[in-house]
Amino acid sequence: MSSSNIKIRIPYGELSAMGPGKADLLDAIESSGSISAAARNLGMSYKRAWDLVDTMNRCFSQPLVSTATGGSHGGGAQVTEFGHAVLRRYRALVVKAEQSVAAELQELVTMLALSAAEK
Amino acid sequence: MSSSNIKIRIPYGELSAMGPGKADLLDAIESSGSISAAARNLGMSYKRAWDLVDTMNRCFSQPLVSTATGGSHGGGAQVTEFGHAVLRRYRALVVKAEQSVAAELQELVTMLALSAAEK
């Protein structure tokens, strides 16, 4: 789960192809093996999770999540090789952005009221 | 106004001391000379704008916005020297973060579906 102070989205026209919420959803699908379980783990509705997966799959040149047909709410889902590659690059990008401004962030923190500097 | 794909917040405990919305509000106060005009320009309620200003002023070691008393909805507001310093550092930090991952962002864009690459 990301609780970073830096949020980065990959735009696709007016849509967001990738962002913190979608990245977390990919992780949850990877670990649970289904969209419905992933949605439950993240406290979001199945419809919301499915919409996010659908958006990702349509925005990228290849699907990030493959779903097995059959059964209500699907017969399982997994993150594709391509999905893993996108997720890996996205996470690395966020880490690099964070590291690049760590010193500047710290300088701004010194301008905060004292009680925060102690936290 | 920021429409960046990178959003950075400066946390203060559970609060956000600075972020894209607050930075835009400071700009709007600077150019309009009052919180109510700034709120109107940004399409937010006066209460919302005032709450954001109050949060900023309480999170930092010095006020970012000074208000003149008198009159309903105040007799004008201005961004302090300290507020300018915080805003300048914050904007520079966002630009640096964007520049640091520009190449990586571009790599991810090449993985998007073709219609986006054409946009």
The chain pair with the largest interface is: A-B, 40 and 40 residues
Portion in strands of chain A: 5-15%
Major sheet of chain A? 2 strands, antiparallel
- SS-based class of chain A: alpha+beta
CA-atom Rg of chain A in angstroms: 17 Å
Following the backbone from N to C, one meets helices and strands of chain A in this order, namely EEEHHHEEHHH
Would you report the number of β strands of chain A?
5
Main sheet of chain A: which strands, in order across?
2-3
Catalogue the unreliable spans of chain A.
none
Number of domains of chain A: 1
CATH architecture of chain A: Orthogonal Bundle
What CATH first level of chain A would be assigned? Mainly Alpha
What is the end-to-end distance of chain A?
22 Å
In short:
Two copies of one chain form a homodimer. The first copy, chain A, has helices at residues 20-32, 35-42, 46-59, 81-100, 102-109, 114-117, and strands spanning 6-8, 10-12, 15-18, 65-67, 77-79.
What features would you describe in this structure?
2 copies of one chain form a homodimer. Chain A is built from 6 helices and 5 strands. By secondary structure, chain A is α+β, with helices and mostly antiparallel strands. In chain A, the strands form 2 sheets. Chain A has a two-stranded antiparallel ribbon with strand order 2-3. Chain A has a two-stranded antiparallel ribbon with strand order 4-5. The mean pLDDT of chain A is about 90. At the A-B interface, strand 1, strand 2, helix 4, helix 5 and helix 6 of A face strand 1, strand 2, helix 4, helix 5 and helix 6 of B.
